[in-house]
Protein 1
Amino acid sequence: MNFRSRNKVTPEFNMSSMTDIVFLLLIFFMIASTLVTTNAIDIVLPKASGKTENNSSVAVSIKKDLTYYIDQKRVGESVLENQLLALLSSQDKPTIVLRAEKSVPVENVVKVMDIANRNKFKVILAVQPNK
């Protein structure tokens, strides 16, 4: 009597499906990472450890020639507060992401922070992460 089974289970594992999944994840993260962009104004930020929250906020950028930008739109220093009030009045938690270059004097950064403090806006100071 021959009691051997005809169905043998092989202990081999086929990796082709696993490589397909890894390849699809790689493509997804490559596409998703190119969609995440910071503001288009080229600013050299100071370095620090920590992360910047990014929810519905308005970016205020100060370049080294002391020009002010609100979300890539150049504004004068005299109308900065009025523009911020117009943009942030409809939000329940108004937030400003302050992006100032390293060489900008502290007085100019404090002006924007003072505007935010007077109007009860939350300020997040954007920095370049340490590597």
Protein 2
Amino acid sequence: MAVWRREFIVYTRERERAVSSVVTPLIWLLAFGAGLGASISVAGINYQEFIFPGILAMNVLFTSMFYGMYVVWDKKLDVLKEILIAPQPRWVAFTGKALGGLTICAFQVTILMIMGALFMSIPLTPLTFLFTLLGSLLFGLGAASLGLFIGAKLSSPDAFSLVMSFVMWPLFLTSGALYPIANLPAYLQVLVHVNPMAYGVDLMRGALLGMWTYGPLLDVGVLALFVAVFFYLGQKAFEQLNLG
């Protein structure tokens, strides 16, 4: 609880970070979605509505992965050392940080869904809001664990640009967030099928718009595996941290 509380306080005090995390996906929706949405549709659904769940998933992914970079700064500022020398297992600290990242994701996704319903005609009911939020939280826990795992392995903030190039953008661009998976050539569809974000996008799109590629059971199963793998690896990475 103490670690979770610290992460949330840090987020609320960094107002620029909070604002940019919401403004960036809105720019995608308004500039990209509205521009193409005026001329195309997908399965009878306006393009802006079609990509809305994908942009939610993008927000979760980028927030969670950048959240991992804060572990690098915590190591440099000795904040993480103070946390890890406490008389508790290191998995407790990892869990607190993962839940802190998950809370931030939930806060941002809620704001985006409300703004989408008010200003972009996104079909939102209490039930679809709840299921979409739950889908984003499931994907968000896996993404936060992945971000913390990578952050624990990095020794310099400068190395995080490599994560952007080789992890975050490939995950996003092969997730079906911006276009139907069926539109991709066969060799790229292989990448989509092993991309956990594709199942997160499908789960949120299905919950919000009723459009499914894999179905809710497969989506939840793959995301649960994604969470389990990186939650375990992240805990192990924290246990192996040598802070000097």
Protein 3
Amino acid sequence: MNNEARIDKWLWAARIFKTRTIAAAACKKGQVCLDGAVLKASRMIKAGDVVSVRKPPITYSFRVLQPIEKRVGAKLIPEILENVTSPEQYELLEMSKISGFVGRAKGTGRPTKKERRSLDDFREDVPEFFADFDFDLEDSDEL
């Protein structure tokens, strides 16, 4: 076993990112840190390092147990890394899930037919029984 591994390869091998390209892009965007310092994709890590990965809305922290560069099965991940993410981060994740964002997320594309119909129902005009009602009661002579 090597004593060191590239951070982008380790993030991919430890199944934190789906592809090595995505892991390298996260490094380039400044989403991967080691002791508060942003890492380049080529940075070498060793056993015992604590790597922070920001995946909005939370920041995950992992302790490197084995610096590997070859992807392993999911059952072997506990031998590769230790999740040391604080419980506050997971609470933040739960709060964002239950916050119930009402609008459509940017970049989700056009609404489906079902979503469009529910939006139309929501924005429907004033019901017919209110159409003839005079809301200006002060000017009304019928009081």
Protein 4
Amino acid sequence: MIRITPSIGIKESEIEEHFIRSPGPGGQKVNKTESAVQLRFHARACPALSHAVFLRLKALAGRRMTRDGVVVITANRFRSWVRNRRDGMDRLIGLIRKAAVPPVHRRPTRPTKAARQRRHDSKHRRGRLKKERGKVSAVD
């Protein structure tokens, strides 16, 4: 069980791992080893995610989520598959953690009377300054 938040935990069996050839750095055996990892998480089928969390995850994942609700993360930053696997898991967990936080709704507020007055005075000063930029008369 992978603990995401105190209320959300996903099973390791819900995450598929596929090792693929990495386009990143490597040595002499770069064309023989599969050091990149591709993680596939079926978010739509996951019972631990509520519908609201799934919708936020869908928005956050963007192109990384397929039409079927599968989040696909490819990690190939490192040369070792162990480190790439850890990196991919960390990225997936971070993405789900971010989706689990509900957005804070903005409370509309009104400006104070003093703030309105300061804005009015500032506009008045600016208008006067622009008015004084008029043409120079030929009177000597």
